[in-house]
Amino acid sequence: MDNTLVIHIREEADIVAARKKGREIAQQLQFSLTNQARILTVVSELSRNIYRYAGCGHIEFELLEEERKKGIRIISLDQGCGIPDIEKAMQKGYSTSGSLGAGLPGVKTIMDEFELTSAPNSGTRVEAVKWQIG
Question: Is the pTM of this model over 0.85?
Answer without folding.
Answer: yes
